[in-house]
Write a structure and sequence with these properties.
Length: 599
């Protein structure tokens, strides 16, 4: 499979790596990871030297590298489904397995684990964690599919200046350019960190109005989740600061709009934006009571697969169980159980399709752990070796709402009596007046997240579930995979993207060169008009022609003509650079030739 290669010494290798093109990966970092990983795993030194040789060559030409056999690397998948259980790890899976009383849908496809640390922290935020899965690059805290800044961990090399803050092409964007259908499904706003990492580019996950705009102009076939308010201007009960009505834009582009599970059931084909909540969707345990018109994660997953699988070229789909993370942030076992079981059902639906299809690579994993959940806490110090499953599960069998929903019922009547009543009715716990007072005091401390008090206090005293934090954790997460080209072993987070890319036959380096050209490297006159701050426009002057490219859109206006580009225009404010598709460069310069291959 690989060309004949000559042996290079390590000094020559380092020089080659430093000179390599930095279009889509920090090659120094990843070469080092693979070198260390290979040295540990190769059976003997001779095999290692041979493998190191082809790693050297690939690094020198700027390709993404994954440690798989030639046979496995050659396997191709028509379809790819990535499912992410945001914010959990092995202990949560074990807990839900006990509660379910049966295996989880993905138990029999566990193949390894993933190291989730990010460029500047041993503990990952969802934005850079998902960005690594989407782009093949380990980036910085809060970054959305954009190159890392220079302040990295001591074990992570400082990125080349050309890589810092630049947008990084995602495997979803690559699949789209390969004429595959594409989709994202989440129970959060679709512009939230994890789905946002697949469909947008930003140096801050908080810029969701920009991220949603990019999603609208990405020509994605299926988008299901929450976030309708970010499609609408403020005068239409939305939250867009730029005054644009993106819902109208979607309709003009031929999208069908679904807002309820009934709407969704009637759609059979075509492009669809499913906006089932103004903000985030409802937690599964509260959904049937508070928002029964919202579809389940499984229903959204099944519908997405039904629509996308009609494409003869195949599809790429990312599905996120978004609120598992929020449940663990809140130390809320009721929320955790409900949303993990919903995710389990979604994976089951995807696996059913993959097994029947035979040409689908399915990857299921988490982006990081949250909450430091454990089966066992201080209350079980003396009896853990005698704990029966009935003892473990008894408190949770009575829970019928999230801690968030309980606080909704309490916030207008914050008395001990009301807390006692609500906890009894919603979680089945007969707490004392002192307990209720302690919960209210803890709620005052958390202020913006007063509902955190329920899980933290009640789990410790009335259950055998433990929590160590309301934040994220830095451990490895389990990896599950099925289908052609499936990975195995302990993977670095960026390898998830390279697995997907290789399975499609996609070269991520070429994809980056094609989608994100630094305009200043091609044109002498590039300015960004910010006279309307919420609607910036890049203006490029070339040989007397003026090209206008609105930021976050896939549009180019020149010579009174409007062109639709194959990718969005991104402005990196930190470096004041504008990144445009290669297609835009060719249009402005009048170059008539085929765009670079992605293979």
């Amino acid at each position: 499979m690989f060309m004949a290669m000559t042996i290079m010494n390590e000094k020559n290798l380092e020089r080659k790596i430093q000179l390599a093109h930095m279009g889509d990966v920090n090659i120094v970092e990843y070469s080092r990871h693979y070198f260390e990983k290979g040295e540990k795993n190769m059976k003997d030194r001779r095999i290692f030297k041979q493998s190191f040789t082809w790693i050297t060559i690939l690094a020198a030409i700027g390709m993404n590298i994954v440690f798989f056999s030639a046979v496995m690397a050659a396997e191709r998948a028509k379809n790819i489904i990535v499912l992410i259980a945001d914010g959990c790890s092995s202990e949560q899976y074990t807990f839900v397995r006990w509660y379910k009383g049966a295996a989880l849908s993905f138990d029999d496809i566990q193949v390894g684990a993933v190291r989730t640390y990010i460029a500047d922290s041993v503990v990952a935020d969802s934005a850079p964690a998902a960005s690594a899965y989407a782009t093949g690059v380990r980036t910085s805290d809060k970054f959305i599919s954009a190159g890392p800044h220079k302040n990295t961990l001591s074990s992570v090399p400082i990125p080349d200046e050309a890589l810092q803050y630049r947008p990084l092409a995602t495997v979803l964007e690559g699949a789209r350019l390969m004429k595959k259908a594409t989709g994202v499904v989440s129970t959060s706003r679709v512009s939230h960190a994890t789905p946002g990492a697949y469909i947008s580019h930003s140096a801050s996950r908080s810029l969701e109005h920009d991220m949603m705009e990019q999603a609208v102009y990405q020509n994605i076939d299926v988008v299901f989740g929450g976030g309708k308010e970010l499609l609408l201007p403020k005068d239409a009960n939305g939250k867009r600061p730029d005054g644009e009505n993106l819902l109208s834009v979607l309709r003009d582009q031929g999208y069908q709009i679904a807002e309820t599970r009934e709407d969704l059931s009637h759609i059979k084909y075509g492009k669809v934006f499913g906006m089932f909540a103004d903000n985030h969707m409802e937690a599964e345990i509260d959904r049937t009571r508070n928002h029964p018109s919202q579809p389940t994660l499984r229903e959204m997953t099944e519908k997405a697969i039904d629509i996308l699988s009609q494409d003869k070229n195949g599809f790429f789909l990312m599905v996120e169980g978004s609120q598992i993370d929020w449940a663990c942030h809140a130390n809320d076992p009721a929320h955790l159980l409900g949303d993990m079981l919903a995710y389990d059902q979604a994976v089951q639906a995807a696996l059913d399709f993959a097994r029947k299809d035979g040409r689908t690579l399915l990857i299921a994993l988490s982006d990081h752990n949250t909450g430091g959940f454990s089966i066992g806490n201080a209350a079980s110090n003396k009896n853990y070796s005698q704990m029966k499953q009935e003892d473990l599960l008894k408190p949770f069998n009575s829970m019928k709402s999230t801690a968030t929903d309980m606080w909704r019922k309490i916030k207008d009547n914050e008395t001990s009596e009301n807390v006692i009543e609500i906890v009894q009715s919603d979680w089945g716990m007969a707490i004392t007046t002192d307990d209720a007072s302690a919960i209210l005091k803890l709620a005052e401390i958390y202020k913006n997240e007063p509902f955190y008090a329920f899980g933290e206090f009640l789990s410790a005293k009335y259950t055998f579930a433990g929590w160590t934090t309301h934040g994220h954790c830095g451990g490895d997460v389990p990896l599950f995979a099925f289908g052609p080209g499936k990975p195995a072993g302990l993977l670095e987070a960026p390898e998830i993207a390279t697995v997907c890319a290789r399975s499609m036959g996609l070269n991520l380096n070429r994809l980056n060169q094609r989608l994100f050209v630094d305009a200043s490297m091609e044109f002498d006159s590039v300015i960004v008009d910010v006279s309307q701050p919420e609607n910036p426009v890049a203006q490029i002057t070339f040989q007397g022609k003026i090209a206008l490219l609105p930021i976050n859109k896939n549009l180019l206006e020149m010579n009174n003509k409007l062109y639709r580009l194959e990718g969005v225009v991104v402005y990196a404010a930190a470096t004041q650079k504008v990144y445009i598709p290669c297609q835009a460069v060719q249009l402005i310069k009048g170059i008539k030739k085929n765009l670079p291959s992605l293979l």
